[in-house]
From TrEMBL, chain A:
The protein's name: ABC-type quaternary amine transporter
EC annotation from Swiss-Prot or TrEMBL: 7.6.2.9
Molecular function GO terms recorded: ABC-type quaternary ammonium compound transporting activity; ATP binding; ATP hydrolysis activity
Stretch list, region Disordered: 286-309
ABC transporter domain: residues covered: 2-237
From TrEMBL, chain B:
Keywords: Membrane, Transmembrane, Transmembrane helix, Transport
GO cellular component, one term: plasma membrane
Stored CDD domains: TM_PBP2
Protein name according to UniProt: Osmoprotectant transport system permease protein
Family listed: Belongs to the binding-protein-dependent transport system permease family.
Length: 371, 246
């Protein structure tokens, strides 16, 4: 576990990079620090392994104040992955991966054997070990970077924009790979990114920072999307940005549930369900709106109390539509329709997010264990 | 004419023979180059590694390069008196800037991400210097040494003017005696020595520069252009150019 206690970093020129940060990163999770540039996310990360020293406050790794540990010693026990991979160009891939074990005094033979294991773990063919970094693609270099960080089997991994320098397709693959690895290895990972899509994809917990080094919200990705803490977060999470990724996930994974329904024509006599929203349909079974539950807010709206519904989600289309339907619906349930626009069921935002999570786990599965 | 002078057996023996002069020249060159390297490499490593005094080093190197060779040799000859020492000091002083600039530029040119990763993985300052920065600096460092050696070979010839031995004697004595074949032969020998030494250093460079870096240099094409582009001094660019033209 990593704890930030009232940590502030003020640079010599007076800029405050991190402002009184209190945060704890649970062991065995991927925690993402996300925010625009200049928000202090990288500085916060770099204070964990003392690449940057805080101006005040305390950082504990597994209960130990990092400032009590010799920096070199500390860093050998914490994996470190950076944006451009930072591989040593003069060393072979295998020797790059063996760096920390060698620093820690392993024999060359043992360190290389371990390095070979790691190449396999990150999905690189063994023969790449004899090559030099310049001979690898960007994605391969980044995998080597991850392998190198994992070589001494550190419990904590710091990843600073690790996938930002590779193209989006390769990035997706690397993210999936990271989730797969994490399911297997169960490290405590702090992952810095400026990309909210990446944050909600890889993060089990997401810390949103804003300029001036202030932590604005620290929550699970579902909550972050559904309930942004303030305008800054909602604009940063922004529907079109935050949900963009969902448009690539097809909607096969969700099961629409039955909800109480009533005909538009029968509204006058309609029995409202006691504590569930009732969906109003026309003759063609097309959704018209929602009727609040009897136990709900008592205000009597005109038109028999029918609230206009939100957007509709057509079955089989990308999940982005489903989440949008759920979040825009007064009942909190997104209406699912078939290709002809007829009512087919309803789905909650939680279910949509669960479906996304299942997808994520499947993508990262392989070993099948849940992260 | 020149050829017959060169192949005249009479010119291959005695205290003014080609072998003796060649060895003298070689000795001055090696002593000056080694002394300059011994001074400039540690200084360049220190400045490059710590980032302290970079401006001073670059400025100082440029200033030293601006010194007129002959003037310096003459000046030291007058100050320190005749003899080899003053000549060797002058030659060393001239050889320092290229080596210093090459070393400094080499360390500075090491990718910032690579150095950051080295730190972040728990290398101490020394480990970073020896295991990461120095290997990465080798191409430019050795480029600087090659530069220095060429300069010393050339300047040693001129230093015959203050009574130094070496191949420059053929040039100077030939000039005095209007013995043009002797002069030309001297010039040819100096050029040949320079080429042979440069070739040997090129081979050394091949042998000690890690393969990964040579591959990287090939991949990225014109390495020196990058150095210039980033606003390095002319000195650094020069040193780099030596490497680039290899």
């Amino acid at each position: 576990m990593i704890e930030f206690r009232a940590v502030t970093k003020r640079f010599d020129d007076g800029t405050v990079a991190v402002d009184n940060l209190d945060l704890s990163v649970a062991a065995g999770t991927i925690t993402v620090f996300v925010g625009p540039s200049g928000c202090g996310k990288t500085t916060s990360l770099r204070m964990v392994n003392r690449m940057v020293e805080p101006s005040s406050g305390t950082i504990l790794v597994d209960g130990v104040d990092v400032r009590g540990v010799n920096p070199a010693q500390l860093r050998r026990g914490i994996g470190y992955v950076i944006q451009q991979a930072g591989l040593f160009p003069h060393r072979t891939v295998l020797d790059n991966v063996a760096t920390v074990p060698l620093l820690s005094g392993w024999t060359r033979r043992r360190a290389r054997a371990r390095a070979a294991e790691l190449l396999e773990l990150v999905g690189l063919p063994a023969e790449l070990g004899a090559r030099y970094p310049v001979q690898l693609s960007g994605g391969q270099q980044q995998r080597v970077g991850v392998a190198r960080a994992l070589a001494a089997d550190p419990p904590v991994l710091l990843m600073d924009e690790p996938f930002s320098a590779v193209d989006p397709v390769v990035r997706e693959g690397l993210q999936d790979e990271l989730l797969r690895l994490q399911a297997e290895l169960d490290k405590t990972i702090v992952f810095v990114t400026h990309d909210i899509d990446e944050a909600v994809k890889v993060g089990e917990r997401v810390a949103v920072f804003r300029q001036g080094g202030r932590l604005v919200q620290y929550a699970g990705p579902d909550e972050l999307l559904a309930r942004p803490a303030d305008d800054f977060v909602s604009s940063f999470v922004g529907r079109d940005r935050g949900y963009r990724r969902l448009s690539f996930v097809d909607g096969g994974g969700i099961e629409p549930a039955e909800v109480p329904t009533t005909r538009e024509t029968a509204l006058a006599t309609a029995e409202r369900a006691p504590d569930a929203w009732t969906l109003v349909l026309d003759e063609e079974d097309r959704p018209r709106g929602w009727l609040p539950p009897r136990s709900g807010p008592a205000e009597e709206a005109p038109g028999g109390g029918v609230r206009p519904g939100g957007s509709l989600y057509t079955r089989g289309t990308p999940l982005r539509g489903a989440l949008d339907a759920a979040l825009s619906s007064p009942s909190g349930l997104g209406v699912v329709v078939d290709e002809d626009g007829r009512y087919a069921g309803a789905v909650s935002a939680e279910e949509v997010l669960a479906a996304i999570r299942r997808r994520r786990d499947e993508a990262g599965a392989g070993a099948g264990g849940a992260a | 004419m020149t050829l017959s002078w060169l192949f005249d057996p009479a010119h291959w023996s005695g205290t003014d023979g080609i072998p003796v002069r060649l060895l003298q020249h070689l000795r001055y060159t090696l002593v000056a180059a080694l002394a300059a390297t011994a001074v400039a490499v540690p200084l360049g490593l220190f400045v490059g590694h710590t980032g302290r005094g970079g401006v001073l080093v670059v400025g100082g190197s440029n200033a030293m390069r601006a010194l007129p060779t002959l003037g310096l040799v003459t000046f030291l000859f007058l100050v320190l008196g005749s003899g080899e020492v003053s000549a060797l000091v002058a030659l060393t002083v001239l050889a320092v800037p290229p080596v210093l600039a090459g070393t400094y530029a080499g360390i500075q040119d090491t990718d910032a991400g690579v150095v950051d990763a080295a730190r972040g993985m728990g290398m101490t300052g020394w480990q970073r210097l020896w295991r990461v920065e120095l290997p990465n600096a080798l191409p430019l460092l050795l480029g600087g040494v090659r530069n220095a050696v060429l300069q010393v070979v050339a300047t040693t010839a001129v230093a015959a003017y203050v009574g130094l031995g070496g191949l420059g004697r053929f040039l100077l004595d030939g000039l005095r005696a209007f013995d043009y074949p002797k002069m030309v032969a001297g010039a040819v020998l100096v050029a040949a020595l320079a080429m042979v030494l440069d070739l040997l250093l090129a081979l050394l460079q091949r042998a000690v520069v890690p393969r990964g870096l040579r591959l990287a240099a090939r991949g990225r094409g014109r390495g020196p252009a990058r150095v210039v582009e980033r606003g390095r001094t002319e000195v650094a660019a020069d040193a780099a150019m030596r490497e680039g033209t290899e």
